[in-house]
What does this fold into?
Amino acid sequence: MRQRLLTVVLGTGLLMAALGAHAQNKLKVGFMLPYTGTYAALGTAIENGFRLYVQELGGKLGGREIEYFKVDDESDPSKATDNVNRLIKRDQVDVLVGTVHSGVAMAMAKAARESNTLLIVPNAGADAVTGSMCAPNIFRSSFSNWQPAYAMGQVAAQRKHKTAVTITWKYAAGDESVGGFKEAFEKGGGKVLKELTVPFPNVEFQALLTEIAATKPDIVYSFFAGGGAVKFVKDYAAAGLNRTIPLYGPGFLTDGTLDAQGDAAQGMLTTLHYADSLNTPRDNAFRLSYVKVFKLQPDVYAVQGYDAAQLLGLGMAAVKGDFSKRNDMIAAMEKAKVDSPRGVFTLGKSHNPVQDFYLRKVEGKENKLVGVAVKALADPGRGCRM
Ligand code: BEZ
It folds into this structure.
């Protein structure tokens, strides 16, 4: 009897240990994204895109099941270090995926460098993340703030505009976006007359719209995204400025926002690494699958989340799911040709996508493809020593 009891106890112990090992065997992915505030919809789209790719692969990457952890970063840089440490120290995730806001992403990159946690940035364009803060364990599946802005600066100069006023939120993304635009626009013969800003995430634009009207530039260049982009584009049109001074920007100004912007956005030209009407077999399949699962049209943020999962999947496949082979995994990710809905992209030396930037025009509820504004544009990776 005692013998049988011992066997049962031992058997149960072994079973528990096996179950424990199995649970441990899952790859832990920590989403640090905004689920509240002006960027909430962007965070959800990124998570949707990531989960969709994993789902398409039967819930596994490199043969390993995935366990998800989540933190709402609220796009608040002052809470970013505590938030990222919840994922690194409390949840002990293997991979961090985040975030949207450049200021928060820089705190994540610092924590990832210090703890050597693998980080994939699925949106935030902070130039420093793949510049002075670059590291072997930090990758980006999106863009640098410089990239779409530089493309728009070229387009504006080619369209023979001579003067511009810029308007944006006062933080890294806005500053760097204006910097990229100005670099290309002034190289092409244009002049930025004024650089206007409001604090993030403030949406009181009236005084600055009055200043734009008084300055009378040929064009306005603007970086806003999410809820702030909806409000800005509507206020710009309500002030009647869109009739005389074309409003340009990186595609964040009109991506994922057209339902809410309606007539105010019609005809706007923007540059981005995605458009709604690429009409390639790869993009059509992605869009169909996304709509089926989420009953929503995808946007650039969903694509970037999907591609963060693809990039991780390529690394995991190269080591057959053995995450301890980190160097081999990183080498495979560095060499990846990501078959993105946006078009195939590779990574530059600083781990930022080298990709085409499209010129798009708003027609109805779509950012329609006009053409390729700049082909295979690489971020300069300023300050990266890798
Ligand atoms: C950023 O903070 O880097 C960012 C936020 C929203 C859209 C694009 C960039």
Q: What stands out?
A: Residues 5-24 have pLDDT under 50 and may be disordered.
